[in-house]
């Protein structure tokens, strides 16, 4: 049904495990994700839901051992890139697909000047040598709002927000087709968050880059994304566009995420956090992994994993509450 | 930076005062009489008394130390009780031998240990890792004198590749250098491995990989420089071990260096000579430490900041 859409990234049935001494951590369990060209796709979920693992899988950067991609297909512009040789993968990293990491404090090499760190990615993927790369680096620094003359300084001489600008400059230096941003603003304070988000938005439009925005912040999703996938225990449990997810919420877990946000209109309203914790990924519950925490759980929920149920041609939910008759109407949970 | 280096040199003065004073006290309290050791057990009481007076040994320890230290300030390290040769002269003649030995040993240690440490870290939990760490374990457990004797037996006596004793040719320094370097090599390799293991799990290594930098380049360019700080620290400390080790190594290989001079002087209760050797070791160790601190600044820009 998605044949007309042009996909930049298509992940099918991805399974990733961390094989540790304490047991097999099933981080990603048959995840499907389609990112359309030029769109910004939000991936939202709790800590430990498998967001970062999914992102790292795309670039084959999972720490191994213990991490193993067990199964699945990862297609970049229709070409499978899973299991490519290191050499081929290195051509994709930083060039076709690049990544912004969560913590700018630790993601830059402390003993290299920032211009050398940015120039390095240009040097590897473009001809022209070091001098040309430095010239481009200075253009990139200006683009992200840093004076090029500071390029000779080291990461410890920059603030967190500035470091994240450096990381963004580095990620966009080779004009990647896909930018994976793994919680790019989580480690920054709120005013800087807004600046960095605006910067990313502008650059995305300017460069026409597709983006996978990983976050646990629904505000960021609303601000910057076109599509949203909600991830729980390594699977996409609800997916749709902003209107689908925000106004026609179907999955009880998505509802729980919204209820966990403070309500600015009714400040006396109590927060309703989702009860319980993420299930232990070494020992996932049978059936729907969310059922032990779900207010609407039924008998079947602990027995069988729910099928995808489509509300329209894209909005789907994996939940036993819904069937062909009631999915359109909704109203089974308090939201939507 | 220069200010920092100057400050460090000034701080050497109290160190030398402290070290010489402690050694002076110990030598005075230790059993055995320097005068008897010079004149022999059969010497007459009058002769002994005369020499004691001449050497100033009848004075209070503190006064003796004061006289010694005043001499030191004038650049006079005293004369040997035994040979009547100036301490500075004797040490000057022997210093090159020990310096050569130490430099060869530390070079052997560094050149071998850092690649071994990196290899062990990159190939963690493989047979290569186990082998490297086994060699390192041997290195820290085998006593210097035993290893020296074994190497002598095999390479000098059996194969005849190297001279058995003396310091006349450069070949004379190979076996002592290996003997002494092996110990330090082991220690440095272990530290390089563990700090490398820590560094390659850091976020910035993942960032470098996400840029498409080949893994080998990541290890040599991104990881190694970050992993070097602990390695340099230990290499610096090893110079101290090396100086201690030189005492044994020089004895085993019959090298006329300061280590052997010190042993002979201690046995003969030749106090000025012992003190002279100790001062040389102290200054050498301090200078090495200073060099290590300066190297830090070049490896890590964050440390450079603190110096200026």
UniProtKB/TrEMBL annotation, chain A:
**Membrane topology designation:** Peripheral membrane protein
Name used for this protein in its record: ABC transporter ATP-binding protein
For whether the record's keyword set contains Repressor, the answer is no
Q: Which domain of life is it from?
A: Bacteria
User: Which PANTHER family does the record match to this protein?
Assistant: DIPEPTIDE TRANSPORT ATP-BINDING PROTEIN DPPD, OLIGOPEPTIDE TRANSPORT ATP-BINDING PROTEIN APPD
Keyword tags: ATP-binding, Cell membrane, Membrane, Nucleotide-binding, Transport
GO terms for MF: ATP binding
Q: Name one Pfam family in it.
A: ABC_tran
Sorted alphabetically, which Gene3D superfamilies does this protein's record hold? Answer: P-loop containing nucleotide triphosphate hydrolases (3.40.50.300)
Where, subcellularly, is it found?
A: Cell membrane
Per UniProt, residues of the ABC transporter domain are 9-258
Has the keyword Translocase been applied to this entry? Answer: no
| Protein family | Belongs to the ABC transporter superfamily.
Which source organism?
Fusibacter ferrireducens
Name residues in a coiled coil: none
The positions making up the signal sequence are none
Do you know which InterPro entries this protein is assigned to? AAA+_ATPase (IPR003593), ABC_Ni/Peptide_Import (IPR050388), ABC_transporter-like_ATP-bd (IPR003439), ABC_transporter-like_CS (IPR017871), Oligopep_ABC_C (IPR013563), P-loop_NTPase (IPR027417)
TrEMBL record, chain B:
Can you tell which superkingdom this protein's organism belongs to? Bacteria
Main location per UniProt? membrane
List the CDD domains: TM_PBP2 (cd06261)
The answer to whether the entry has keyword Oxidoreductase is no
The topology of this chain with respect to the membrane is: Multi-pass membrane protein
Keyword field: Cell membrane, Ion transport, Membrane, Nickel, Nickel transport, Transmembrane, Transmembrane helix, Transport
Q: Which InterPro entries match?
A: BPD_transp_1_N, MetI-like, MetI-like_sf, Opp2B
| Protein's UniProt keywords contain Transferase | no
Instruction: Quote the subcellular location field of this record.
Output: Cell membrane
The cross-references to Gene3D superfamilies, in alphabetical order and at most eight, read:
MetI-like
What residues does the ABC transmembrane type-1 domain cover?
95-296
- TM segment ranges: 12-30, 101-122, 134-157, 169-191, 227-253, 273-299
Name the Pfam families for this protein.
BPD_transp_1, BPD_transp_1_N
Family assignment? Belongs to the binding-protein-dependent transport system permease family. OppBC subfamily.
The record's subunit annotation is: The complex is composed of two ATP-binding proteins (NikD and NikE), two transmembrane proteins (NikB and NikC) and a solute-binding protein (NikA).
In Swiss-Prot or TrEMBL terms, this protein is called Nickel import system permease protein NikB
């Amino acid at each position: 049904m998605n044949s007309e859409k042009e996909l930049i990234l298509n992940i099918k049935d991805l399974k990733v495990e961390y094989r540790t001494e304490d047991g097999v951590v099933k981080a990603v369990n048959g995840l499907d994700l389609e990112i359309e060209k030029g769109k910004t796709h939000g991936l939202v979920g709790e800590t430990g839901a498998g967001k970062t693992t999914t992102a790292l899988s795309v670039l084959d950067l999972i720490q191994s051992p213990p991490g193993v991609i067990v199964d699945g297909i990862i297609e970049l512009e229709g070409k499978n890139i899973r299991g490519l040789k290191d050499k081929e993968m290195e051509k994709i990293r930083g060039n076709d697909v690049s990544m912004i990491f969560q913590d700018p404090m630790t993601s830059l090499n402390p003993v290299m000047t920032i211009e050398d760190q940015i120039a390095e990615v240009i040097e590897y993927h473009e001809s022209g040598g070091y001098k040309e790369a430095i010239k481009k680096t200075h253009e990139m620094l200006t683009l992200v709002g840093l004076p090029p003359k500071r390029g000779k300084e080291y990461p410890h001489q920059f603030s967190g927000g500035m470091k994240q600008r450096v990381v963004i400059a580095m990620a966009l230096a080779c004009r990647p087709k896909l930018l994976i941003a793994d919680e790019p603003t989580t480690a920054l304070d709120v005013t800087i968050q807004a600046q960095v988000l605006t910067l990313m938005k502008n650059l995305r439009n300017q460069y026409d880059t597709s983006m996978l925005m990983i976050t646990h912040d629904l505000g960021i999703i609303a601000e910057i994304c076109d599509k949203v996938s909600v991830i729980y225990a390594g699977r996409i449990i609800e997916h749709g566009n902003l209107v689908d997810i925000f106004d026609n919420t179907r999955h009880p877990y998505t509802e729980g995420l919204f209820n966990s946000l403070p309500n600015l209109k009714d400040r006396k309203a109590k927060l309703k956090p989702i009860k319980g914790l993420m299930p232990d990924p070494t020992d996932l519950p049978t059936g729907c992994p969310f059922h032990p925490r779900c207010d609407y759980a039924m008998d079947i929920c602990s027995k069988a994993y729910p099928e995808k149920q489509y509300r329209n041609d894209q909005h789907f939910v994996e939940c036993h509450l819904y069937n062909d008759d009631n999915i359109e109407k909704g109203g089974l949970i308090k939201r939507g | 930076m220069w200010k920092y280096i100057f400050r460090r040199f000034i701080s050497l003065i109290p160190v030398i005062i402290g070290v010489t004073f402690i050694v002076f006290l110990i030598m005075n309290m230790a059993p055995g009489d320097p005068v008897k050791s010079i004149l022999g057990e059969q010497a007459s009481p009058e002769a002994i008394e005369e020499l004691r007076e001449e050497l100033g040994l009848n004075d209070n320890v503190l006064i003796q130390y004061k006289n010694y230290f005043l001499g030191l300030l004038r650049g006079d390290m005293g004369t040997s009780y035994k040979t009547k040769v100036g301490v500075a002269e004797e040490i000057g003649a022997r210093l090159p031998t020990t310096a050569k030995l130490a430099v060869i040993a530390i070079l052997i240690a560094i050149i071998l240990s850092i690649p071994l440490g990196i290899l062990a870290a990159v190939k963690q939990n493989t047979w290569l890792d186990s082998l490297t760490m086994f060699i390192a374990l041997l290195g820290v457990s085998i006593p210097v004198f035993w290893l020296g004797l074994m190497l002598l037996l095999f390479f000098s006596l059996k194969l005849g590749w190297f001279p058995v004793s003396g310091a006349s040719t450069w070949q004379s320094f190979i076996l002592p250098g290996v003997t002494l370097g092996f110990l330090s090599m082991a220690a440095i390799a272990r530290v390089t491995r563990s700090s490398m293991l820590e560094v390659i799990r850091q976020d910035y290594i993942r960032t470098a990989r996400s840029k498409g930098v080949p893994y080998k380049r990541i290890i040599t360019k991104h990881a190694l420089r970050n992993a070097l700080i602990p390695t340099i620290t230990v290499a610096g400390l090893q110079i101290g071990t090396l100086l201690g080790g030189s005492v044994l190594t020089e004895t085993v290989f019959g090298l006329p260096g300061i280590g052997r001079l010190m042993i002979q002087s201690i046995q003969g209760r030749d106090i000025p000579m012992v003190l002279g050797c100790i001062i040389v070791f102290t200054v050498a160790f301090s200078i090495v430490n200073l060099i290590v601190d300066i190297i830090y600044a070049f490896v890590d820009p964050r440390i450079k900041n603190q110096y200026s």
